[in-house]
Design a protein that fits this description.
heterodimer; A: Rossmann fold; 6-stranded mixed beta sheet; 4-stranded antiparallel beta sheet; globular; B: 2 domains; 3-stranded antiparallel beta sheet; 7 helices; 64% helix; 8% strand; elongated
Chain lengths: 238, 177
């Protein structure tokens, strides 16, 4: 789904050049949920911008759905972003003058989906985040957790298959943050690919894989162990 | 101390026999701390000596089963239990923490790569956190409430450990020339 091939991102040039990321190489499979952790300034957000085709590498290649992003023009990149990738941010980024349903339907309509069809798909996406009863509410009438669920529905509505989330739980209390993680996890079970940037290890732990960055490089990677559905006593006794 | 108060807490619900106490304790604590039945009987003997429990009538829990000695809470036992519930639990003095001791000794030693120790520990703790989170994901929030609450506690302990490792790394990096 997403592959970084020896990707480096340098800001500025000459003596003032600062390497924000790289070289890093990794692959993320379709349906996988990957968390990126690391201290501030380790390159997490740079990595997410490159994955979302919002930025281009100084060196190396980023492949998204088998396409080398460097071979695409600006219009093709914009179309790829609209159709493939959904973004979720800490501050929700919902339009205050639109209802939850209209916010979710908007990217589809901008991409040419007829209004009625866009609203049907938006309704379905909102049902998947358990907000079917609040579709007519405006963002100001929703709680923080509900707003973030609208943002998540908007991120995977329609044909989009990849969700990139930058600290989506940063503004939420622990119970609501956990609900947002559970929803992201559930969407990945249904085939969505998700990349989560977070400072919170207990949220990263919802992912299949956790990549740890330091000074722009991947320093380690952990995969969720296989756990059976048997007796819950085992992990403590073992 | 914990076993003693746990038995008082269960007897406060209803009189029980020794094996019933073991089962009730394990059920309430999601089976995380298995009790051996011998430990239950020696603790009951001590509680009786201190006047906190007393023997009740012998009963069989189902027809055909042999009768077993039941135990009741005394007034003094109830008051001890109430005192325990109200007394906050403070880790004071702190329990021995192998990870902290290991890291502090590594920092004091000349020939040890502390960064590597921290990195190995972080990967292992992160994987433990992922494992606990998988259990949490599967837990039924109503039928398995004790298990879920216990998982929350364990998860937050590992999270604190990971945050401490990150702080150690940042402080040690700041110290380097």
């Amino acid at each position: 789904m997403l592959a970084f091939e020896d990707v480096t991102r340098v800001h500025g040039d000459g003596e003032r050049a600062v390497r924000a990321l790289g070289p890093v190489a990794f692959e993320i499979r379709a349906g996988e949920f990957v968390a990126i952790m690391g201290p501030s300034g380790s390159g997490k957000s740079t990595l997410l911008s490159l994955a979302g085709a919002l930025d281009q590498p100084s060196d190396g290649r980023v492949h998204l759905q088998g396409q080398d992003l460097a071979t695409l023009g600006a219009a093709e990149l914009a179309a790829l972003r609209r159709r493939t990738i959904g973004f979720v941010f800490q501050d929700f980024n919902l339009l205050p003058g639109l209802t939850a349903l209209e916010n979710v339907a908007l990217p589809l309509e901008l991409d040419g989906t007829p209004g009625r069809e866009a609203r049907e798909q938006a309704n379905e996406a909102l049902a998947r985040v358990q907000l079917e009863r609040l579709t007519g509410r405006f963002p100001d009438d929703l709680s923080g957790g509900e707003r973030q669920r609208v943002a998540i529905a908007r991120a995977f509505v329609g044909p989009r298959r990849m969700l990139l989330a930058d600290e989506p739980t940063g503004a939420l209390d622990s119970v609501t943050g956990e609900l947002v993680m559970r929803l992201m996890r559930d969407q990945c079970e249904r085939g969505l690919t998700a990349v989560l940037v977070t400072h919170d290890p207990s949220h990263a732990a919802w992912a299949d894989r956790v990549l740890y960055l330091r000074d722009g490089r991947l320093v380690d990677e952990t995969c969720a162990p296989e756990t059976g559905s048997g007796s819950p006593v085992l992990p403590l006794r073992g | 101390m914990t076993v003693k108060n746990s038995l008082l807490a269960i007897l406060a619900q209803e009189p029980a026999h020794g094996y019933g106490l073991k089962s009730a304790f394990e059920e309430s604590t999601a089976g995380a701390w298995p009790l051996n039945v011998g430990q239950v009987y020696t603790t009951l003997a001590r509680l009786e000596r201190d006047g906190l429990v007393e023997t009740g009538p012998s009963r069989s829990s189902s027809e055909g089963e042999r009768e077993r000695q039941t135990w009741n809470l005394t007034v003094e036992g109830r008051s001890t239990l109430e005192g325990w519930y109200r007394k906050p639990v403070l880790d004071d003095p702190p329990a021995r923490d192998e990870l902290a001791i290991k890291v502090l000794l590594a920092v004091a030693a000349d020939q040890v790569d502390v960064a590597e120790i921290l990195q190995i520990q972080r990967a292992a703790s992160m994987q433990r956190l992922q494992e606990l989170t998988q259990h949490k994901r599967r837990a039924d929030p109503e039928a398995e409430l004790p298990w879920l609450l216990l998982l929350d506690a364990l998860i937050l302990k590992v999270k604190a450990e990971l945050e401490w490792i990150e702080l150690c790394e940042a402080r040690l990096r700041g110290r380097r020339p």
